[in-house]
Here is the input.
Amino acid sequence: MSLILYGASLSPFVRKVRACLIEKKLDYTMELILPRNQPDWYFDINPLGRIPALRDGDLDLCDSAVICAYLENKYPETVSLCGTDAAERARIAWFEKYADYEVAPLATFTVFFNRILAKSMGSSCDEAAVQKALGKLVRHYDYLEQQLADNDYFVGNRFTLADIAVATQWVNLSYGQEVLDADKWPKLVAHQQRIWVRESFQALFSDEAKMLARLS
Ligand SMILES: N[C@@H](CCC(=O)N[C@@H](CS)C(=O)NCC(=O)O)C(=O)O
Here is the structure.
């Protein structure tokens, strides 16, 4: 097996794929590609230049959702993270899409970017934008809290890609010095802790600490 994951450890989308790879016990190597500082050859793999991308032999794939779905289909003998019937698969895909396209623009691209990455890219933190994003996140916390109801996990009451996709965004939010309020969203905070204590996430946190230290 020769899986190569291109990306940088602090990206929530790279973390999502790495968590899948670890949970599925698939070996891979990682090649560092920094967003907005990609080498020219990387655009042959991903014309958008974004991370992550995955190389499996002759096959190159882009986008974390596409990559996670590929891993699920290519390695059916590994633990299933994407659901076992049509309804589950659709619900998991929905939460993944929700996290990637509704939560990420606020938690990662605004809070994390401004508070942590902006300085290293020669710009300053736009705190007004951060505050606006934090305000907009409230309705997403409310929705996700309500969706968890009395379950430990988002779909089928077992650990899936839906949980990874949501919890990976909270990691970037916490790197941006923001935490979810346990008084307002107790179920969501308990869910976050449940996912973060998993061996997969713990292993990633120690690896990410090196990169984070370089930025602070
Ligand atoms: N939908 C994509 C989003 C990937 C993404 O936006 N990655 C960011 C880093 S977190 C990136 O590469 N940004 C650089 C750019 O847009 O040029 C996925 O899930 O892989």
In short: The radius of gyration is 17 Å.
